[in-house]
Design a protein that fits this description.
The protein is of the alpha/beta class. The chain folds into three domains: about 180 residues, Rossmann fold, CATH 3.40.50; about 200 residues, Rossmann fold (3-Layer(aba) Sandwich), CATH 3.40.50.12780; about 100 residues, ANL, C-terminal domain (GMP Synthetase, Chain A, domain 3, 2-Layer Sandwich). The strands form six sheets. The chain has a nine-stranded mixed beta sheet. Helix 4 links the parallel strand 4 and strand 5. The longest helix has 17 residues.
Length: about 500
């Protein structure tokens, strides 16, 4: 396996990330790469289908650098189209299949894809903006070509086109939790650097099976899981979206070795009896999208014997920045910088802070994006001098180099002139009995400027005495940090990747 990874490093001048599929198909042609609804697809079969897509697209006039959009749910077909696009040297623009008509129209007009791979439900949206978005061909059952018709136009023999390492490979749209999405341009080198770090940190190999129910348009599902698994020649056990019973049925079969989820899903798992027995052959658990509560990590380790590993990352970093190691796992931290990545904390003026002080997390490395598509103003705001990317997150680093996330800069609450970091309050809330999920935000208040407000989801809707909860928080926090308002809700708004959307809480609860 080591020789396999060394071969990928040689491609650092001219490269194409679709070559990693070709390499896995060469070394492990009969290994299963996708298991979906009981159907297995081998590496050789997926590579052949990607070749059919690539040669068919070239036949329609697609050329290197063209934008090709994918807007459809996860499937083996999606993967074949994705790698086919990359093989041509074109740029894969991956969009959520859950976008509203307005959101989809906005993004298509922004990226202007030559070809759109989609599903029938969005055709009405596409027909209204097709000319403006400059879409030549729509591939779906009721489009210009169905996927199967496209395959019939292609050839199974093809080698990926060489691209420069600085060429854009993919564009992923991110609004994070803060607003209007931006198109993140990730190069072939960005992706290569990051997925090699994933494989090294996780000890991935061709015998692993990763459970995937997170969307391919998100950097975690696409890079950390899909592309890293392809590079390590592992298998992807795929289900369309998270369904607890479906997940438990798959885990029971004992083939899944790697469980990838987000904090809200781990919170649901912790409600189950005999949790360790239900995980089957899982050897590795990883949490992403947002920082998981330390209390949940401790409970998971106590009940399963497995740590929940965590890293710090973002779409703009493709995504890996730091990793919390297996050799010295520090609960509450997101670890130390991965290979080839630098992390520095800076103040609001861009100056490095003193050791032990909090500051904005700034990142530099070959994993950092080329920039935001057609957005020079955002690019100017995103970087300090010498290529240091501004994450927008506040953190501190301990004496051993471990990074701890304090909060998002934009989530910080100023109440009565005091600064409150919501995550600190949320960590304490998670230690209180019967709280499954929570989110702390600041809401406008004439007296305090912002009123610290806690939104809480309880286990099975159990009632919690607000006075007792407030007394508990006062015993752990400074008085000004204790929320003044408590709102018990059935659920919290989340992105399709499972991240709690605090901006939606603010919009729906303005006072």
């Amino acid at each position: 396996m080591m020789a396999f990874l060394v071969n990928t490093i040689k491609d650092l001048v001219t490269m194409n990330i679709s070559k990693y599929l070709e390499q896995s198909a060469l070394y492990f042609p009969n290994n299963t790469v996708i298991r979906e609804n009981g159907i297995e697809i081998s590496y050789a079969q997926l590579n052949d289908r990607a070749n059919l897509v690539a040669t068919a697209l070239l036949g329609t006039g697609v050329s290197a650098g063209d934008h090709i959009a994918l807007c459809a749910p996860n499937s083996g077909e999606w993967m074949a189209f994705y790698f086919g696009v990359l093989k041509t040297g074109a740029v894969a623009v991956t969009l959520s299949s859950l976008l509203s008509r307005k959101e989809l129209a906005l993004l298509l007009c922004h990226c202007k894809p030559k070809v759109l791979y989609a599903f029938d439900d969005i055709l009405k949206t596409v027909s209204g903006i097709r000319k403006e978005a400059e879409i030549d061909t729509v591939i779906c059952n009721s489009g210009d070509l169905s996927f199967e018709q496209l395959l019939k136009k292609g050839k199974a023999s093809f080698r990926a086109v060489d691209r420069d390492r600085s060429d854009t490979a993919v564009i992923l749209y991110t609004g994070g939790t803060t607003g209007t999405p931006k198109g993140v341009e990730l190069t072939h080198e960005n992706v290569t650097q990051s997925i090699q770090n994933v494989i090294f940190c996780e000890g991935s190999n061709e015998n692993d099976t990763a459970l995937l129910f997170l969307p391919f348009n998100h950097v975690f599902g696409q890079m950390h899981i899909m592309n890293a698994t392809i590079l390590s020649a592992g298998c992807i056990e795929m289900i369309p979206s998270f369904d607890m019973q479906a997940v438990l049925d798959i885990l029971k079969n004992g083939q899944v070795t790697k469980l990838y989820a987000v904090p809200t899903i781990y919170a649901r798992f912790l409600q189950l009896d005999n949790l360790k027995g239900k995980l089957g052959s899982v050897r590795y658990c990883f949490s992403a999208a947002s920082t998981i509560a330390a209390e949940h990590v401790c409970q998971w380790k106590e009940r399963t014997g497995l740590p929940i590993y965590e890293s710090y990352g973002m779409t703009e970093a493709a995504p890996m920045v730091t990793y919390n190691h297996c050799h010295r796992h520090v609960v509450g931290s997101v670890g130390t910088p991965v290979s080839g990545v630098e992390v520095e904390l800076r103040d609001q003026f861009g100056k490095p802070v003193k050791p032990g002080e909090k500051g904005e997390i700034c990142i530099r490395g070959r994993n950092i994006m080329k920039g935001y598509l057609n957005n020079p103003q955002a690019n100017e705001r995103a970087f300090w001098d010498n290529g240091w990317f501004r994450s927008g997150d506040i953190g501190h680093i301990d004496a051993n180099g471990y990074l701890f996330i304090v909060d998002r800069i934009k989530d910080m609450i100023i109440t009565g002139g005091e600064n409150v970091y919501p995550r600190e309050v949320e960590e304490i809330l998670y230690t209180y009995p019967d709280i499954r999920e929570c989110a702390v935000i600041g809401l406008p208040d004439p007296e305090w400027g912002e009123k610290t407000t806690a939104f809480i989801v309880t286990d099975s809707g159990k009632a919690i005495d607000e006075k007792e909860l407030k007394s508990f928080l006062k015993s752990h926090l400074s008085p000004f940090k204790v929320p003044k308002d408590y709102r018990f809700v059935e659920e919290l708004p989340k992105s399709n990747a499972g991240k709690i959307l605090k901006r939606m809480l603010r919009q729906s609860h303005p006072k």
